[in-house]
Specification:
The protein is α+β, with helices and mostly antiparallel strands. The protein contains six helices and nine strands, in the order αβαββββαβααβαββ.
Length: about 210
């Protein structure tokens, strides 16, 4: 559901919220993240997200969220010593940290935009890879959370299309792949593979990004 929500809503950027202190309270991490999402929505019209939560090796929690690409600049209002409000233009990639530190304390954390490592770099250019990247952290956290508790969170957004399941019997793997492999004009293959038990086939396609070579 996380992967499909990210793809349906077109989230194309990754944000990671971290604490400088060894903050080990899961409830506080989720509440701080909720406040960050709300304030970012107040600053950026149409801001949406899908987020997973994960403890680091030292025990401190951090948040991975797929979001829309941030604007180059964001108008931020600040109250001056004389009581008047003044509007400042803040670079988009700086707004996340500014808002996060207003919640968790000065110099107590960072908001990294874009993620780290080769997986994050690849995810920036593909909705499917972005969905898989964030969903990976949700899976790592999944077994730690009792049934019925929140494992991930997301904003209100575009409804996820209803999936259609069709089961086929007495069909060879070759015939299955021949029947299922299809890539429309203007689309590219993101991933395709045969299942480990040789009884299934997975294919993922998506629209070519603007400016991509044919």
């Amino acid at each position: 559901m996380c992967r499909r929500f990210i793809k349906a809503n077109g989230f194309s950027e990754l944000a990671t919220l971290t604490y400088r202190e060894n903050q080990t309270d899961e409830r506080r991490a989720k509440e701080d993240a909720r406040r960050w999402f709300r304030r970012m929505g107040d600053l950026i019209p149409g801001f949406g997200y899908c987020a997973g939560y994960e403890p680091q090796k030292r025990g401190a929690w951090h948040v991975h969220a797929a979001i829309h690409r941030l604007p180059d600049h964001v108008d931020v209002k600040k109250r001056m010593p004389n009581g008047e409000w003044k509007t400042f233009k803040v670079k988009g990639w700086q707004v996340g940290t500014m808002v996060w530190r207003a919640i968790v304390g000065k110099d107590n954390g960072m908001c990294f935009i874009g993620g780290k490592g080769p997986g994050a770099k690849k995810a920036r250019n593909s909705l499917a890879k972005m969905a898989a990247y964030v969903a990976k952290y949700i899976t790592k956290h999944y077994e730690m959370v009792p049934e019925g508790k929140q494992r991930y969170s997301h904003s209100q957004g575009v409804a996820v299309p209803v999936s259609v399941v069709e089961r086929l019997v007495r069909m060879s793997l070759r015939d299955l792949i021949t029947m299922c492999f299809w890539c429309e004009d203007g689309e590219r293959v993101v991933d395709h593979r045969i299942g480990r038990f040789k009884d299934s086939y997975y294919l993922c396609t998506e629209a070519e990004p603007p400016g991509a070579a044919c």
